[in-house]
Design brief:
By secondary structure, this protein is of the alpha+beta class. Helices cover 26% and strands 16% of the residues. The mean pLDDT is 86.
Length: 130
């Protein structure tokens, strides 16, 4: 291992199974996202912060990129305030976690659907616009 190696440890889904009778949505739905390496500071990350996988690329660019490095990402990195983050059934906004439902604000649902669409496009087509 090199001295400047950075490890990112995370999961790919957010459903925990627990025998506890009552647990809040955050406990049942959170997945770890751990950045480990020389120079990584715990103070960079708020223990109560929430984010999503679409923020990883920008976060990695911020951590390993040289000073002044510019990049493009679909969402803000994990150091910046992202108004809405989401997974397959939940979203977080204003420091709270909500279930996506027919009662969810249309602007939030439209945002989530557009981000999913762009994310799927990038996986399937890369940078192609054709």
């Amino acid at each position: 291992m090199y001295s400047d190696t950075l490890f990112v440890i995370t999961g790919d889904h957010s459903e925990r199974f627990s025998f506890a009778k009552e647990q809040d949505t955050r406990t049942l739905s959170s997945i770890p996202c751990i950045f480990y390496g020389a120079g990584v500071q715990q103070a960079w990350f708020n223990d109560n912060a929430v984010g999503d996988h679409m923020q990883l690329a920008g976060t990695l660019a911020e951590i390993v990129g040289p000073a002044g490095f510019t990049y493009a990402a679909l969402q803000a990195n994990m150091f910046e305030n992202q108004d809405v983050v989401f997974n397959h059934r939940l979203y977080a906004a204003d420091g709270k976690i909500y279930t996506q439902s027919s009662d969810t604000d249309k602007k939030i649902i439209d945002y989530i659907n557009s981000m999913r669409g762009v994310g799927a496009w990038r996986v399937l087509k890369g940078d192609a616009v054709k």
